[in-house]
Each structure stands twice: as C-alpha cells, then as structure tokens.
Amino acid sequence: MNIDIKEICRIARKAGEAILEVYQGDVEVEIKDDRSPLTAADRAAHRIIVRELEQLTPDIPILSEEGKDIPYEVRRNWERFWLVDPLDGTKEFIKKNGEFTVNISLIEGHKPILGVIHVPVRDKTYFGQLGQGSWVREKEEKERRISCRPFDPASDLTVVMSRSHPSLELETFLKNLNVGKTVSVGSSLKLCAVAEGEADIYPRLGPTMEWDTGAGQAIVESAGGVVETLQGKPLDYNKRDLLNPYFVARGA
C-alpha cells in the first residue's frame, strides 16, 4: 500500500489547529492513572487523528497514547500499524512555552518506516520516510530537505536534552562526551533537532514510550542518522510493555 505522507502531514496539522484552540484559553488539567497530565487538547487531537486515519487507511490499526488500552494479545499480530501521540509534551503545553508536537508514525515489522511531527505553535512540520529522505516545511514556505550532521565524537558536540526530564544517569553519560554545548528542549523536538542537523546527539536516559519516539526515529533515520539503545541495538516497537529502553539518537 502506497501512503501519501503529505496526507499524514495534513492530518497532523489539522490536529494541531484543534490543539491551538485549547492552548489559547485556560487549560484545565486532569491527572491520569500513570500520573501524567491530560488536557482537552490531547482528547481533541486524538479524535481527529483517529477519525482521519480510519478514513484514509481503514485496514491499518491505530495505537494512540490516548487509546492505548489494546490487549497485547490483539496487537501482537499486527504487521503494520499507526502509532500516535496526539500531543507530545503536555507538560510544555501546560507551561505554554510552545514546545509540544503532534506525532504520527507508521510501524512495520517492529520498526518505524514513516514519521510526521507537527509543531502547532510554529505551524512547522517535519516528515520522513525510509528510503525517501526527511523534510521540513514551515507555514506556507517551500519544503526543504534535512539531514543529520555526521557524528564526530572528537569534535565539540552539541547535545540536546529534555527540558522536563533531567536525570543523574544523563549527567554521568555526558561526562564521557566531548560536550561543547547543551540545549534543553521539550517533546519530540529533540529528535527533530538531530534530524535537522542542529544537534549532534540526543541521549535519552529516562523513561519514554513508543509513541514518544516512533515518528522522530523515522525522521532521524530517514535523514541519515541512527536511533539505538545504549547497547547499540535498534529500538523495538509493539512490545508487550510499550516502555522504551534508554537510547541515543545521533548522526551516522
């Protein structure tokens, strides 16, 4: 099945418009069972993305953060599925710092093969597909191709890291790198920074879920980079436990 990635960009942008409607008002926050925050924007974006994807690809199942209660016994047989985070960076959304995204990825054979990340506040969309490259488009400007920096551990590295999830493990990890500069950013924008060549490396030594990384991994890898565990193994998707191991994203 050939999927037009521009259609997925359109869906992500539409979800972003719904998010901005909530963002511009007073944001009411609920706390989910896992103690993560939930807003009306998460729900609105989830409804739009699921509806649009079901219309576009009715035969491809969907796993979304806001609809994740699908038994492993059901999804273990999926050969291909959409993996969605309707609002990545809810904490940044609540802080109103603009660093939140809409993430949509297509997983095939336990690996992301297509990814779209939309930044609603900037009306900026990153998208990539394995074998076809990665691109970015801001507002109505012409899209441009992006690529990772070649990774040279001997150079002064620009390291991008989480704004809301620092860790002691990360501090230890950074002592073994030749760090020239660190940048703190929210949501999947960290993966976008690597894909766009604005950062050399993004080490994540803290908890993430599969929907946090699927789209960004597809974009980074389509831009010539790698996303791998600290043991140098690829991230595996559609596991029984959807929690990712620690990982590093960087140029090749």
Question: Which structural class matches the secondary elements?
Answer: alpha+beta
Proportion of β residues?
A: 25-35%
How can the largest sheet be summarized?
Answer: 7 strands, mixed
Strand order, main sheet: write it out.
3-4-5-6-7-8-9
Q: Sum up the overall morphology in one term.
A: globular
Low-pLDDT residue spans: none
Give the mean pLDDT: 94
User: What does the radius of gyration come to?
Assistant: 17 Å
Helix content: 25-40%
The beta-strand count equals 14
Name a few traits of the molecule:
single chain, 252 residues, alpha+beta, seven-stranded mixed β-sheet, three-stranded antiparallel β-sheet, 29% helix, globular
Break the fold down into its secondary structure elements and pairings.
Elements lengths: L4 H19 L6 E2 L5 E2 L1 H17 L5 E3 L7 H4 L4 E9 L1 H6 L5 E8 L2 E9 L4 E6 L3 E6 L5 E3 L10 E6 L5 H7 L4 E7 L3 H7 L5 E4 L5 H13 L2 E5 L17 E5 L1
Parallel strand pairs: 3-4, 10-11
Antiparallel strand pairs: 1-2, 4-5, 5-6, 6-7, 7-8, 8-9, 12-14, 13-14
Helix pairs in contact: 1-2, 6-7
Summarize the structure.
With 252 residues, the protein is an alpha+beta fold.
Walk me through what this model shows:
The protein has 7 helices and 14 strands. Strand 7 and strand 8 (133-138) form a beta hairpin. The strands form 4 sheets. It has a 7-stranded mixed beta sheet, with helices on both faces. Helix 1 packs antiparallel against helix 2. The chain is globular and about 50 Å long. 43% of the residues are buried. The mean pLDDT is 94. The chain is of the alpha+beta class and 252 residues long. 29% of the residues lie in helices and 30% in strands.
